[in-house]
Write a structure and sequence with these properties.
This is Nuclear transport factor 2 family protein. It comes from Terriglobus albidus. InterPro entries: NTF2-like_dom_sf. With about 120 residues, this protein is of the alpha+beta class. The chain has a single domain, classed as Roll (Nuclear Transport Factor 2, Chain: A), CATH 3.10.450. Helix content is about 30%, strand content about 45%. It is built from three helices and six strands; from the N terminus they run H-H-E-E-H-E-E-E-E. Strands 2-1-6-5-4-3 form a six-stranded mixed sheet. The relative contact order is 0.21.
Length: about 120
């Protein structure tokens, strides 16, 4: 996958975490994640697109209006590492974190996601 294609895939995935309509969030997640995606973070250790959709919805319920901006994105051999910042609805930075992902280069979708941060 080219760096540009991966950036687009990541941006689409990451934008699903923002305060957007539920149907649009689900569309973006289904576009960027495999049906059996595995995901972990300090709050979750789960699998499956429907569970991920619920997790992202819960995030917006707890942190209404928050969103993410990526500051670094690197890839190698079907893997990605990203550095990002979470912002509140007033654009104030709240937390810095890292994500690791594996992706299917044939489908252009993420198969595994792991987020690391501490509030």
């Amino acid at each position: 996958m080219t760096d540009e294609a991966l950036q687009k895939l990541w941006n689409t995935y990451q934008s699903a975490w923002a305060d957007i309509p539920t149907q649009e969030r689900e569309r973006r997640l289904r576009e960027t994640l495999t049906p059996d995606v595995a995901f972990t973070n300090p709050d979750a250790d789960d699998r499956g697109i429907d569970r991920m959709i619920a997790s992202v919805h819960d995030f917006q319920q707890r942190y209404a209006g928050c969103y993410f901006r990526t500051t670094l994105l690197r890839q190698q051999h079907g893997q990605l590492v990203a550095m990002w910042t979470m912002f509140d609805r007033n654009d104030a930075p709240l937390v810095n974190g890292h994500s690791y992902a594996r992706f299917d280069v044939q489908k252009d979708q993420f198969t595994q996601l792991a987020g690391f941060w501490k509030l």
